[in-house]
Amino acid sequence: MRILNLNINNVDYTVTAEDHDTLVNVIRNKINLTGTKIGCEQGSCGACTVLVDGEPVQSCIAPAFRYEGKKITTIESLGKAGELHALQQKFVEHGAIQCGYCTPGMVMSTLALINKNPNPNRDEIKDAISGNLCRCTGYIKIINAIEAYAKHINNEVSKISSCGYNGNCSNNNESEQKKHLVGVAKPYIEATKKVTGAAEYADDIVVKNPLYCKFVRSIYPHARILSIDTSEAKKIKGVAYILLGNELPVTFGVLPISQDETAIAIEKTRYLGEIVAAVAAETEEIAQQACKLIKVKYQPLHAFLEMDESIKDTGEKEKIHSHVKFNNNIHKKAELRFGNQKEALEAADHTLNMEFDFKGINHGFTEPHAATAYWDHNGLTIITATQVPHYLHRYLAKVLELPMSRVRVIKPYVGGGFGGKSDPFPHEIIISYLTKKIGRPVRVRFTREEVFLCNHGRHPSKIKMAIGMRKDGIISTLDADIVIDGGAYGSFGVVTSYYNGVLLQAPYKLNNFGFRTLRVYTNKPQSGAMRGHGAVNSRFAIETMLDVMSEKLNIDPCELRMRNFLDSDTLTVGQYRITSNGSKISLQKVMEQSDWKKKHKKLPNGHGIGVACGFFISGSALPIQWNEYPQSVVHLKVDLDGRVLVTSGASDIGQGSDTMLAIIVGEVLGINIDDIFVLAADTMLTPIDLGSYSSRVTFMAGNAAKMAAENLKNNILNNVSLHSGIPVEELIMEGRHIFTSDKKINLTWNEAIEMATRKVGALTVSGYYNSPKLGGDFKGAGAGLSPSYSFGALVAEVKVDTKTGFIKVINMWGAHDCGKAINPLAVEGQLEGSWHMGMGQAVSEEMSYYNGLLTNANFINYKIPTSLDIPDIHSTIVETIDPEGPFGGKECGEGALHPSIPAIVNAVYDAVGIRITSLPIKPEDVLRKLKEVETLNEKAL
Amino acid sequence: MITEQKTFVKALSIQDAINYVNSFSENCKYIAGGTDIMANKFLENDASPVLIDITDISELKGVSETANAIIIGPLTTLNNIQTNSIIHTHLPAMQKAAYSVGSPLIRSSATLGGNLLCENRCLYYNQSAWWREAVGYCLKCNGDVCIATGGANACFSEFVSDTAPVLICANASLNIINCKGESRLVLLRDIYTGDGVKPRSISNTELITEIIIPKNPHFKCSFNKLRLRETLEFTSLTSAVSFDNSGIVKITLAGMDPKPVYLEIDKTVPTQETSKQLLKLSRAVDNDFFSRKYRRDMVKVFLEKSYKELNIC
What we know:
By secondary structure, chain A is an alpha+beta fold. Chain A is 29% helix and 23% strand. Chain A starts with a strand and ends with a helix.
């Protein structure tokens, strides 16, 4: 330790630091400027970007002592709330901020660009931020914001509308919008906090006198633990506790039917990277050092690494889980049949069989998992980056054997989730146990490698699909045989198994349909839920096959789809209730905008265009935990000050649910967003919402908020009526006023609240949402049931380099039926982000293994598309007004992803005549297939 | 989190640096931009206990020219190389090469000297300490065998500098000063040993003071880099193909061997034959994001592209 003098934001700081300290460590942990984030610690994501003498520096790979005598600038030096820097203002207005975790780094990189080039063009902007990864936005709105800022400082009028929303909506009525909050583009209510670096994420929150937790992780994919020697580690000064699995024997898992995991491996390990011991110590460094001294003796067991092997009888080899019914590693078999597929295929005019192969992918959120737990007179409190505070609440109570009343889960700002923070995790349970045991707060944060090892990403899958088709292009049957690789534990896998099949029954009408999915255990990090859960890969399969059939039958692929779409207000073969359905209009929109008819089959070799459609659930109609508690509850309180407090368990992870709640409440009450304060996702203060997964929040929490607001409105009007003598039915609540049409009474909002609270005090009301009873009564009928479904279509345009096999996606035109865009700015952000993520799975992302060891657990070799890789994205919001959605709204954050991958692959076919059946598309596969086509053509000649 | 290193000192002049080196001897390492060293330290691949920071030595920065040569200070950042007018005039391929490194955030810190000396890479080496323990330690981290090849007794970590190939084609030399203050001039091409474990013949106590590129008004060079994304990537194959009025084509590849693959060949030799000769010199193994086969196939593709660009027939 020695003295370090740094000038940060024109303030001189003197701190003590180690010679090996990085700049980010000093800035965050010693000076408490936590606006600068840590994403990878290897200079590959840009979250930690600061300026040093005006130049961008990634502070995670910058030795702190280098910067004595330099001028360091962090996000905190820019504007603050109320006085934002113009660039920050543009980020806010343009919806460039979703989870907000990459935002400070993005802003700093932009400032470095502007310092050198005050008038950058779009390409220069993309280049300047190409070292800053964003996983939420697809970069479009960030680039727009920077472009608008550059125009602003150069006094040019921006072509991009000032609200940041491009206004491309099927149901646009500007004059109507002025009176309302719903349907008007609105920056996130917390955007200012995020853009100034003030928003606190899990690792930004400081507690007094904490211990730090680190883990010993298994170095074998499948092994018996013979012994763990902690004696040397215990000798290190500063080690507070060493925890082994036997202290936490209770199993857990997000689904009640898959309680197959313990917080720390007991007796044996099931994947490379599984936690076998945990150390709590005075510093992270001591904890890490102690971990290295813990000696674990293993007896390696046969490792099951491939799905094919896991299906088979294991013979003498020890299976991964003893609870599995037979002597194999099959976790779940899900099968449903409507009609006889074999007969239908035999009777079909045309049939097609294809096989597909998908690598696993990871969510790639920018904020690594982090949490702090403390134990006090109220019991346990944990502040953690989670999408599911309620489920974590339940499982902490279960594993720690505490009543739920002694457990409190707080979700701070979360730097992206996409399904990757939707399970209760071992690290959360471990630090909770440790703080209870030791009595001091315990913190943990993952390295990026640990994030990848924790995984819960999209299942690697193998799909065999057969379809039968009539001469006129109508699908007569569909049969899918699917195997998905669950990795070592259950997670959401049972649901994933069903979703792979059942979500094939729309958007096309099927009378004869069946599937079988096997989810297998393997000795790899576990798979789970990821954006578009379960249905993305099977969607890819059917959309590719429709493209093949359209070619075979010489029917335009769009036309073929049009002929097969389900109608609105109908039932699917598996009795899903389809209400509003924007399939046709979505497809029409993308056809028009992409100039489909002029391009398809008409572009030069190497250049092509492709289409696909999709659909998804708006929340699962059946809760994970079988009980009759509502799926979401919202409380409202208004007191004399007139501000409405919204409390909801819904978890905003960057998708904008807090803002959605505020908009809905404001709309019903006729007040402004500023009149509303949202307090969300704190299990002690907020009523239960099941969490941010399965695209349920707008529909369910939105409806609960709407009901609560209507109840509050009635309550206020009743009280005003009581005191004013005017019948309730004559009172109008609008524009922050309560009045009668003849203005006999015309109270401002605050006057009305003063009147309404007389004698009774603060008004508190509640609203809730319960799905209606839906679906058939056969086994498995509940899978994929949803009160509403979203629909969409996408056209992608690609160029293929036939020499290198590289694919460049140059355009994406997408349209998505979200029912009603409660906040069009947020909806567009979800669509662009979904398409960007789909493109990643299509062209660059995969989890690669070497003998069960993940080889690319970093942002250099796990290849998330950068700002230079993304195409131009043209989005259209389609509104169909769902009869049960809040103001007609339904999901938009997951379903949009579905068509993007097959559209790209179908475009590759249009460009060069090859069918891609395994993802991601690899340049060498493209070359091999091109060669095969060439050879075939030569033979034909 | 970086824990191994114990001392960090800052040299303000070349003499200062030499003094430090003499006081710490072999335990120390010079650090410039640090984008390579710090990432390797985070992974515990670099355990040098002493870092001597040279980024504030102004005499080692900047680009100048004489009648016969361009002289680049080794601490010139890649961003500065990318935008420098002298380099633009005489060596535009060098700008392209500098621009291809990492991301703009890397290039604002990373220096040319650092890029020439950056550590070789391998899928089985650039991993955390836990990972390398799990895989069983390869030759480059004191293990017994090469993991990538499944047991070879040699290390095939890839040489990944993107700027070196252009400079090698341009016949660049380095001025290097040792801890006694003695200078030596060495051809850049000659500092690379071909041993993946110890890929450079410059010792920890030596410092590059100048990168000297002879001027050649007829020098033309085509630069290509194989990477999946358009930024952030280390190379899987970098090619520099140069040509002047001598009739000889010079080709340097990175990413195909522990050292740069270098070939001089008559311009009349068909690219098919030339790529065969290059592949004979390349010891590429499956230790990269792209397969060995694909990278080898791309050598010919890059060559043809370059020949076309340079109008060599």
